[in-house]
Automatic annotation (TrEMBL):
GO terms for molecular function: polyamine transmembrane transporter activity; symporter activity. It is a multi-pass membrane protein. Belongs to the amino acid-polyamine-organocation (APC) superfamily. Polyamine:cation symporter (PHS) (TC 2.A.3.12) family. It is found in: Cell membrane. One of its GO terms (cellular component) is plasma membrane. Its main location: membrane. Keywords: Cell membrane, Membrane, Symport, Transmembrane, Transmembrane helix, Transport. The chain crosses the membrane at residues 57-83, 136-162, 183-202, 259-278, 298-315, 321-338. This is Putative amino acid transporter. The keyword Transmembrane helix applies.
Length: 357
């Protein structure tokens, strides 16, 4: 169940990035705001980006680093140029009077921007010495990500005074124009698109390699672990992930990220419960990495994020409950289908862990 929730949250999350790309592009090209041009743009962009993912992790990794540098540069420049215009008292504002605060959107967006860190674990098999590389990489990435969000946010909120209703997807580009001119607005819009491309590639890689790992463990049929001859990438996983991504990419952006958050929260709660149960029942079990804390400390450590996860579940909309519920039911049905296929030997499975475990 955990694997299904994590996979589904991942592929739904992947759908958010083409939508985000088009949301920025339609500010430059209004034809993409709605209708068939927008739908066609979503289809083509998703297919092209999926093909790039098919070409291999090395290419995806280098492209992601390059895109990260290019996409962050205009935000750094905007933050520097905003310094003379900053009024610190604006940071203490509690919001514009008379404007309704959408806390559901706020918490979902905040959660969406700062989660999915554990998805990198599905790529551990492609990394040399992950026990040392991953903790350091995650430590640096968390700090870098928080700083990259906070500095431009403080710069814009301190330097720009506009009606609160104008703060919507892509407002940083509008703020950049107000601070420095149209040239920076265009650069930020291009940078945002490139950033979304990099995030799409990272998320799709994680989802496709998760299916490969589940096939290696015998949870899914062996053909889910097939790799491309030319690029050694899990093409079946990429194909299935892309198909589901396309299926949900025509939802609105808020419903996409809320559904991804909801399923991810369910998976994380189950993951925390499994983590604590294993530490209690099998404390001496050899692990690649062991959290250096005793059980009471681990319980407290897990309770804090669990509270936020429960909040995300509670504030979900009816649409999110419906989408997540249908996908959960589908995942349960798929689980029993795999058990049936394994029992009847309809497909070949690796001799990994059994579904009953």
């Amino acid at each position: 169940m955990m694997g299904s929730w994590k996979f589904l949250s991942g592929v739904i999350n992947t759908a958010a990035f083409p939508v985000l790309c088009i949301d920025y592009l339609d500010k430059l090209f209004p034809v993409f705001e709605s209708g068939w041009p927008r739908k066609l743009a979503l289809l083509i962009s998703t297919m092209l980006l999926s093909f790039l993912n098919y070409t291999g992790l090395a290419i995806v990794g280098y492209v992601a680093v390059l895109l990260g540098i290019v996409s962050l540069s205009p935000f750094i420049i905007m933050s520097i140029l905003a310094i003379p215009k900053i009024h610190p008292h604006r940071w203490l504002s509690l919001g514009q009077k008379g404007v309704k605060k959408d806390w559901t959107l706020f918490f979902n967006t905040l959660f969406w921007n700062l989660n999915f860190w554990d998805n990198v674990s599905t790529l551990a098999g492609e990394v040399e010495n992950p026990q040392k590389t991953f903790p350091m990489a995650l430590f640096i990435a968390v700090i870098f990500t928080c700083v990259a969000y906070l500095i431009p946010l403080f710069a814009v909120t301190g330097a720009v005074l506009v009606d609160q209703s104008e703060w919507e997807t892509g407002f940083h580009a509008t703020a950049a124009q107000m601070i420095a001119g149209k040239w920076l607005k265009v650069w930020i819009e291009v940078g945002a698109v490139l950033s979304a491309i990099g995030l799409f590639e990272a998320q799709l890689s994680s989802s496709s390699y998760q299916l490969l790992g589940m096939a290696d463990l015998g949870i899914l049929p062996k053909f889910f672990g097939l790799r491309a001859k030319w690029f050694n990438t899990p093409w079946v996983g990429i194909l299935l992930s892309t198909a589901i991504t396309l299926g949900v990419s025509y939802m609105n952006f808020q419903d996409i990220i809320s559904s991804a958050n909801f399923l991810y929260s369910l998976g994380m709660l189950l993951e925390f419960a499994s983590f604590l149960w294993l530490r209690r029942k099998l404390p001496q079990l050899k692990r690649p990495f062991r959290v250096p804390m005793k059980l009471p400390g681990l319980v407290i450590m897990c309770l804090i994020p669990s509270g936020f996860l429960i909040l995300i579940i509670v504030i979900a909309t009816k649409t999110v409950y419906l989408v997540s519920g249908l996908m959960t039911v589908g995942a349960i049905g798929f689980y029993f289908l795999m058990k049936f296929c394994k029992y009847k030997k309809l497909f070949k499975f690796n001799n990994g862990e059994k579904l009953d475990n």
